[in-house]
Amino acid sequence: MENIQRLAWTFLIIVMQCITRSAAAPFVAPAQAPLGPATTHYDFDVTVGKGAPDCFEKDVILVNGEYHKQIEVVQGNILEVTVYNNLPSTWPLVSEGISIHWHGFSMNGAEWYDGVGYLAQCPIQAGTNFTYRFQVNEQPGTYFWHGHAGNEKVDGFVGPLIVRPAGPEALTYDEEMVLFLSDNYHTSATALTFPLNRPFDAKKQTNETGGWDWVAVPQSITLNSHGFYGDCDLLAGTNTAIAPKCNVTTQWVPPGRSKFLPYSAVTNPGCKRENVTVEAGKTYRIRMINAGSLAYLSVCFADHNVTIVAADAYPTNPLTVPCVDINLGQRYDVLLKADRPVGNYWLSAVVVNATRTGSPAGYGVLRYAGANASMLPTDPIPQPESVAPWTFGTVSKITLPKEYLDPKTLPKGTILPFGQASLAPPNATKTLLVNLTQPLLPNGQLRWALNNVATFGTPTCAPTLDLLRRDPGLMARDANDTRLGKIPQDLAAKQMGNDFEVPMYLEDGSPAPAMPVAEKDFMLLIKGDVVDVIVQNLAANANGGDYRPGVGANRTAQEQHPFHMHGHHFWVLAYGLGHFDEATNSSSFNTVNPAFRDSFTIFKNGWTAIRFKADNPGVWILHCHTDWHLFMGQKMYFATSPELAQAPPADLPKCPATCMYNFGPFTPSFVQTRWGNTGYST
Ligand SMILES: [Cu+2]
User: Which residues lie at CB < 5 A from ion ligand 1?
Assistant: First the structure.
């Protein structure tokens, strides 16, 4: 079906080009009504099957029998995807079904199809179907689709999504390919998720609940959906430095889980390392996507530099680098020129700043046509510790090309925020400081919090967007169930008075909670607001109480967080170290040509400032794209003029009788009752 649509569209473009080129003959519009946009339709038959992405066989979620199915659509077309949830009812999920988020799409005017479970829709329950249908008014480029009701993405419900330009491609290259990066766990996502809800605080644990248990590092990194668990074949070479990679006992495996045996092409003939084949002399556009759940990756093509030309679909000034640091949820389009001698070169994806013993790396081969296909590269295999991570200087060089900053030179087909004449950033009208912490809740659960609020669950068993659309004052009145952010009048004074003060206020004017709570963090915005958000990293590994200085213990460790925002692209103004101080740090903001993205990293011991235009009525989530952090509450919502949202589509999925997202405590007996042994199957 989609191929026919593509053919028809291509034919139309050719005809249009012929017409516009024959300048001598005047073009007279036909008398009929103009054609509407073409529709690109996909059916997604969602099932569970056996897969072995890294040679270890496990249950995976498939779409039409495919793992990580790729889809494409032309800018301006209607994208229509009918999702048939044919997962067995015994398949354990942390939600009551599945949904799809179109990662990186702004969804302006399509607020009901953004796919966050319980926010804009209830999940698509087992045995039912739902059709996503919206016009793709998005920048041509590289995106991906993934489940967003629970953790179904981690089990494989994710794939590349490419938006083609309606006209000629702006970039010049000979061929293109997708490099779909992920990390792979041998245990089901839900079995990994259950223990995150159990009490971290030993005093709150019982024999029945057991204790909190971290998911630990993935078992492998996959390149284009396959990898090589253990990669013992590399031992056959002369480089003994990689020997520890085969010793999985060095991997941190939580108590009670298996230390699976490593695999090799000898013991598993089906094992395959990713080979990317290129022809000497050609230039390749490589669409890199990090769809993993934990691993921040540095991707290197040995002996080759690559040139970044787009970040999160929007063009960038060309930046030539030896390796690309790509965080969860991010995409980079790079150009690679095959200008080295014909041969085999390592294609490696190592974890950036790997600190956990046993973090795996993904290794593939960049193979020139004509090279010996049975040989591995003879160079030493790249080791994580030998790959230098990007500095703030590198990531700050990702900027907008100047033709995108001026209405007179703006390339055709550029998607702009509402009311903008170019991608030059407007001045901010509001500022929000978000403090990231990892508190313990009074019930002993360990959570991630934004301004001391760990967000999960829903107020009622209905889409939040529908509740707010009908009654925008609902959250404000329901102060016991939600926390409503307000903008401080004087952020600078707050900052100078106390680095740790939370400039976020509740509806009644009282400050945000001094002690951590499990609630919902909302910030109400008015359409047209231009909002600066400064996300401040604070110490993780809290061991009790809140994050105020002197309270609690063990506050030294910090983790990087890959944040992503729905419903918008935004300008990434600055990255900084230490505590953000408005008086000194806001002068470092790049307000001339900042990158226009939908993801940003909050580095360890640092802060990141973004600016977005609230041009899209609806409820939009800002969250960490580490799936495990998202589950543990690391998210908040921007509700932009919800009264302006459209009425929901009549066929929106019915809400289940009970809404179960992130319900607890996931004790073994609860899991046994709900799903039987499959809840813990590996
Ligand atoms: Cu995080």
Answer: 561, 624, 626, 629
